[in-house]
Amino acid sequence: MDYRERVVIVTGASSGIGRELALDFAARGARLVLAARREAELGAVARAGAARGGQVEAAVGDVADRGFVEALVARALSRFGRLDIVVNNAGVPKHKQVYHLTAEEVEYVTRVNFLAPALLTLAALPAMLRQGEGWIVNISSAAGKIPPPREAVYAASKFALGGFTEGLWLDLAGSGIHAALVNVGPIDTEIWRKTDEPTAYRGRKLPPSAVVAAVFRAIERRRHEVWVPGWLRLAWWLRVFAPGLYRAGSARFDPVPAAVIAAARERARTRA
Fold first, then answer.
1. Does residue 108 have an active-site annotation?
2. To which H or E segment does residue 234 belong?
3. Which of 118, 167, 187, 232 has the fewest CB atoms within 10 Å, i.e. the most exposed one?
4. Could you give the CA distance from residue 174 to residue 159 in angstroms, rounded to a whole number?
5. Alpha-carbon span 63 to 120, nearest angstrom
6. Which of 11, 16, 4, 26 is nearest to 124 (CA)?
7. 260, 198 contact by CB (below 8 A)
8. Where are the beta strands (DSSP E) in the chain?
9. Which of 3, 154, 201, 246 is the catalytic position?
10. Checking phi first, is residue 213 left (phi over 0); if not, alpha (psi -120 to 50) or beta?
11. Cβ of 100: how many Cβ atoms within 10 Å?
12. How far apart are CA 153 and CA 79, in angstroms?
């Protein structure tokens, strides 16, 4: 696929997967609108992308803001005159016992991880329909298929993103617009340093380049769903066909401490 003159929006582009995606698109000659909250980091990515040959527009803001999300499409059309690819990569973690969650946290995680991709997709569709083609790539998580302990809200937001994308497979049939879902496992990014509570996972983490390769595979081969790494699909099958075994294994991997339940029960009594 020739990416020269293609116009691409990448959210969450200031670091990790988004940064690598932006630089790879730029090296292929794409024209980019990059979105992230951190101005300094995003500016550095934009300059690096320009140095690799891409034309880059940096947009600083929070995708939890509906106005900011919808303005990304307007910015792409104003600067470059078209829109070919949207990569919904921005996301926030929430690794926290359900007893400790707040309503505000639930709302924010849902806004960033699900509502923002859905709204950006809706905003992008008219331009893609006029062109007769386009690509929507949603970066999800294995948690959106296999909910791990302490990630009920994060998993729910990614389940929603997965369901939305699967619905797009059907609704966009015949339109020339392709929707892809990338289910990502442990990746070596700064998200692991932003967890509210310690994680039990101590295994290998893949580099962001593994996800970047999956995104280009989904675009160029029109793949509907890609797993990174691929073996995680086996764990999903276990959850589907042996849910009891899956729950038992998860509980043993990262059990809920009795002290956490006792403290939650005591707080509930004092609030009664």
1. no
2. helix 232-241
3. 167
4. 25
5. 9
6. 11
7. no
8. 7-11, 31-36, 55-60, 85-88, 134-141, 177-184, 225-228
9. 154
10. alpha
11. 14
12. 37
Residue 192 is predicted with a pLDDT of 66
Q: Please state, rounded to an integer, the average pLDDT across all residues of the chain.
A: 94
Q: Which residue's entry shows tokens 């700064």?
A: 190
The residues, ordered by sequence, that sit 6+ positions from 98 with a Cβ below 8 Å of its Cβ are 150, 152, 153
E-assigned strand segments in 27-153 = 31-36, 55-60, 85-88, 134-141
H or E segment to which residue 162 belongs: helix 152-171
Report d(CA 241, CA 234) in Å as an integer. 10
Beta-bridge partner residues of 135: 85, 178
In this structure, what DSSP letter does residue 12 have? Answer: S
Integer-rounded Cα Rg, in Å, for the chain is 19
Three-state secondary structure call for residue 205: coil
Domains in the chain, CATH or no CATH each? 7-271 (3.40.50.720)
In tens, the pLDDT along 92-129 reads 999 999 999 999 999 999 999 999 999 999 999 999 99
Task: Check: CB of residue 208 under 8 Å from CB of residue 19.
Answer: yes
Torsion 139-144-148-153 (CA) sign: positive
Q: What is the C-alpha separation between 150 and 95, in angstroms, rounded? A: 5
Q: Would you give the DSSP letter of residue 197?
A: S
Closest-CA residue to 162 (of 178, 138, 185):
138
Range in 27-36, 122-131, 132-141, 256-265 the model is least confident about:
256-265
